[in-house]
Each structure stands twice: as structure tokens, then as C-alpha cells.
Amino acid sequence: MNQTLTLEKYEKGTSLWVDAWVRLKKNHLAIAGMFFLVLLALLCLFAPWLTPYSYEEQNIALGASGPSWQHWLGTDTFGRDLLTRILYGGRVSLAVGLVATAVSLVIGVTYGAIAGYVGGRVDAVMMRFVDIVYALPFMIFVVLLMVVFGRNLILLFLAIGAVEWLTMARIVRGQVQTLRQQEFVEAAIAMGLSNWTIIRKHLIPNSLGPVIVYTTLTIPSVMLFEAFLSFLGLGIQPPQSSWGVLISYGVETMEEYPWLLIFPGLVLSMTLFALNFLGDGLRDALDVRSSKD
Amino acid sequence: MLRFIVGRLLQAIPVLFAVVTITFFLVRAAPGGPFDDEKAVVPEVRAALEAQYQLDQPLHRQYFSYLHDLLRGDLGPSFKYPGRSVNEIIAAGFPVTAELGIYAMIVALFIGGTAGVVAALKPNTLQDYIPMSAAMIGICMPAFLLGPLLLLIFGVQLEWLPVSGWGQLPGDKILPSLTLGAAYAAYIARLSRGGMLDVMSQDFIRTARAKGLPEHIVVLRHGLRAGFIPVIAFLGPAFAGILSGSFVIETVFQIHGLGRFFVQAAFNRDYTLILGCTLFLSVLIILFNLLSDIVAAWMNPRLRSQLGGGRRK
User: Fold this and answer.
1) Which among B59, B64, B142, B41 has a CA at the least distance from the CA of A222?
2) Which residues of A touch B (CB under 8 A)?
3) Residues from chain B contacting residue A273 (CB–CB below 8 Å)
4) What share of chain A is helix, strand, coil (3-state, %, to 5)?
């Protein structure tokens, strides 16, 4: 078989990824969600250059004012521009979402891949451990952890990541178990590749579909969790803010200044909406089995 | 079936042991103690207080004495509510949380189940899109946002319902139950829609229709029973979530339930109360997970025979 033939074949066939992209493009809600997220991320990232206001500079004389031309979404009781604070808060909320998800991704994928690949007694012990940890009331532990060790941002990432890796480990293990019985893995073993190379080059890339889908659905649940902790007063510390902090603050003053609750709430909800739509769209696009309904 | 239940209960023992041990050492590893805030406390009084609660003894002695009391069902005295035992506090807070949880569950099952079934009957029509979009709102609006918004609209602006409390004013239970149930209603709607879609295309449904049964009997008696299995399996985790979620609801609506006691205990470093609440909630969560597995098995004849000893026809 010569080189050009294989290349031609490769170009003509549609790979899983091209196929998925075509299917995803047909899902308008998912695409709209994606655009919204990219736009929001850019706005938050470039917030210091986009807004003339500082997120911590107070203007007591102005106080809380409703939406106006100077302050599109109004100001809080300290006279700080709400739009600016939402954008800066978004940096924290999005960062928590991404980093904590990445932590859970690394732990979950490694753990699941090893359990699924090694199999046998090691697998049984490892998954038994996951079952036991699953039964622990984690929400309670994270609340406890934050109270006990102070409101540390790194601890927050680790704590949330440590909670979310379990399901990922289960998904990856299931995938790897199915994959390792297939011929191309047998071929790789016959070729004398090391276990680690097989896991890295063959098993992980081939189980990426479900992992991507689950990751997109983990980000909103992580962001929700951060907002929940911040709401209880256990998350980010002032003058820094996150959407959870802004909502919590908005709740305190909602009777006099309802916009302080409504706008941050709206931004959080819309982001969660977008992430969920994108996640659903990706699942339909990547996972052929569940796309029937 | 009995073997399955006993096995699961035996598995719960190491989990609970781990919960007690981790929590015990976690709260004590923290900087600060339960009597740090009281600045007026004279050193002698403080020493007396610590002696009374055995805080002056070595850590391992405290741990074993706690375990010893625990085996007799005694969760110890609370540090911050003098004269009250943790058992009493839990006994006072739990009925409130349980009632809130049950109402929220009813809201979730009734609204979510109806929406899911209605949507599944005519997939990809407006009858499907409208309830399912409404369900997305439940998922994307966390309780700590939905609760205050509902309060703002129905409590403050329209003045239809009271803004706080539990069982003191007529109608004050409506908003907390609705808020707590909303997110789970949304998940249940999606699960029951998926389950019903799967079931309604199966042979036994066609048989039921061919027998000439009216459509509502086909859906309610034949369809629901199989289509609700995913929902039943979700009820255990849902109940766990509702229990943890009640922290927020109890804070927003100022309800004196278990969740509020737990959060306050955590802030106050009330060691025994934290441990007691954590352990109690863990037991509940494990029990409900077991219960939902049993019910799911009982509703699915194939699984029932797998568990062994089940009734066979």
C-alpha cells in the first residue's frame, strides 16, 4: 500500500470530529451558546481596557443609582459601576469554573484510565474506593473545609475539583474497558508499546468524546458551586468579587435596589444556559447512541 | 433481596466511620477553637469550660471517648448552646428540614413528572419545547437566586405571601418549597421525558393499544411504570441534594432547620454539633440512596430477579 493512497483515503473520509462539527453547526442553540460564551469571556478578559471605571474605587457621593448613560447597569451602594464589577467578577467565576474543572479532569481521566486499563483486582479496589467516596456528603465537607481553613482561592479550586472527579473517573473507566478489548489495542500490545504509551496515545484520545461532553456539563455545576459558597460568605473575599458575591450582596439590598440582584443574576443564568445548551449540543453531536431523542 | 439490603447496610458502616474520623480531625485541625470569641472569658473559666467538654485531654483520647459515646447514640453536648445536647438540637431542627424536603420533593415530582410526560407525548412540537424550556430555567437559576427573586416578586412587590418563617403565617411554606423543588423538577422533567420516549416505542405499549385500552390508561398505567425508572433512580441523589440545598433556603427564608444549625455550627466551631449534623445527614443520604435503589429494582422485573429471591411470575 503506497503513501498517496492512504492519504487520499484519509482526506475523503470524514473523521469523527468533522462529523461532529457538522452536526453541531445544525444545532442553533448550541452555536448561539458558544458565541455568547466566547463574547463574554473576551469582555471579562479585556475588562480593564473596556471600562473607564475601577472595580474597587468607591464614589460614596453618588451611592446606589439605577441604570443610566454613565453607568449602563447602575451602581452599587458604594457608587461602584455594576457593569465593571460584573465583568471583573466574571473573571473569577469563569476562572474557578475552568481551573476546578481542569483539576477534576486530570484526576478523573488518569484514575479512570488506569483502573480500566489494568482491570482485575486493581480495578475492583479502585472503583470500590470511588463508590465509597461517592457516598460521602461532599457539599457538607466543602462548606466545612472553607469555614475551617479560611477562604482561600486555591483551596476552593482543589476542593471543588476533588468533588467533581468521581463521575469523570467512572466514565473514562467504562470507555477504556470497552476500548482495550478491541484489535488496535491488541496490535499495540503486540508491537511492544509500553502501557503508559498505549494509555496516552490510544485509549485517552479514543475516549475523548464523552469526556468533552461531561466537561462542558461540569463547568456550569462548578460555577454554581462557587456561587453557592460565595453566597454563604465562604467564597471570594471583598473587594474582589465573583457573580456569587454580587448576587449575595444584591439579595441584601434587593428591596431598595433590585437591579443589584437582577443584573448579576441574569448574567449568571445566561452563562449557565449557554453552557448547558452547548453541552447538550455536543452530546448529540459526539455521542451517536444518545442522539436518538 | 434481603441479602442485597443487608450487604448495602454493612457497606455503609466503613463509610460512616470514615465520615466521623475525617470530620473529627478536620474541625480540630482548624485554627481557632469554640471559646475564642468570648473575649471576656477569664483564663480559669476558660480552662474549666475546656475541662468540662474534655478539650484539655489529648486528641486521641477525645476521639475514642467520642466514638464510645456515639455507639450508645449519644452525640454529646453542644458547645455553643449551653445545656442543650446535640441530639436535642437535631431533634428540634430535623422535622422542619424534613417537612421542607418532602414538600420540595412533591413539588419536584409533580411539576417535573407532569412536564416530562406531557413533553414526551408529542416530541419536537410546541408541547415538547415549552415545558422543556421552562425546565432549563429551573436548571440555570440556582436556588439562592430564584428564592430571593420569588421573594421580591410575591413577597415584597405583590405582597401575596409572607417573606420569611416556617409555619407561623399562612402560606409561608409555599415559596421555600417551590424554590427548593424547582431545580429537581427540572431534572425530573428531563429524565421522565427521556424515559417515556424510550418506553412509548416498545412492543408492550403497542400491545396495550392493540387491546383497545384508552390512551390515558396506556400512558398512566403501562407507560409511567417503566418510564419512571430513571426518575426513581435519581430520587436518592435528589434527596441528598435537597438536604444540602436546604442550607440556602433556610438562610434566605430564615427557617430554623437543620441546615441553618449546621452552617452556624461550622462558623462557631461548635465541634460536636458539626460532627452530629454531618453524621446525621450522611446516614440520611446513604439510607435514601439505598431506598431508591430498592424501589428501582422493585419496579423493574429484570433487575428484581437479578437481585435474587425476588418474587417471580
Assistant:
1) B142
2) 132, 135-137, 139-141, 143-145, 147-149, 220, 224, 227-228, 231-232, 244, 247-248, 250-251, 254-255, 258, 261-262, 265, 268-270, 272-273, 276-277, 293
3) 136, 140
4) 75, 0, 25
The closest CB to that of B282, out of A137, A247, A277, belongs to A137
Q: How far apart are CA B140 and CA B138, in angstroms?
A: 6
Amino acid, res. B231: V
**Sequence-ordered list of residues with C-beta below 8 angstroms from that of A111, at least 6 positions apart, any chain:** A126, A130, A165, A169, A172
HSE-CB at B19 with a 13 A cutoff on CA atoms is 29
- The residues near A63 (Cβ < 8 Å, ≥ 6 apart) are A75, A77, A78, A79
Q: The pTM is what?
A: 0.77
Over the stretch A118-149, which tens digit does the pLDDT of each residue have?
A: 888 888 888 878 877 776 667 777 777 777 77
Which residues of chain A have a CB within 8 Å of the CB of B196? none
- Residue pair A74/A82 in contact (Cβ under 8 Å)? The answer is yes
Contact B152 A272 (CB under 8 A): no
Q: Which residues pair with A65 in a beta bridge?
A: A75
Return all residues near A98 (Cβ < 8 A) that are at least 6 apart.
Answer: A219
Min Cα distance B313 → chain A (Å) is 33
Instruction: Answer yes or no: do A247 and B144 touch at CB < 8 A.
Output: yes
DSSP per-residue string spanning A157-214: HHHHHHHHHHHHHHHHHHHHHHHHTSHHHHHHHHTT--HHHHIIIIIHHHTHHHHHHH
Q: Write down the residue that cell numbers 412492543 correspond to.
A: B203
Contact at 8 Å (CB) between A267 and B161?
A: no
Taking the CA atoms of chain B, what radius of gyration do you get in angstroms?
A: 24
Q: Answer yes or no: is the ipTM higher than 0.85.
A: no
pLDDT tens-place values along chain B, 313 residues long = 777 788 878 878 887 888 888 888 887 776 666 666 655 566 777 777 777 777 777 778 888 888 888 888 788 888 777 778 888 888 888 888 888 999 999 999 999 999 988 888 887 788 888 888 888 888 888 888 888 888 888 887 787 877 777 777 777 788 888 888 888 888 888 888 888 888 888 888 888 888 888 888 888 888 888 888 778 778 777 887 787 778 788 888 888 888 888 888 877 778 888 888 888 888 887 788 778 777 777 776 665 555 544 443 3
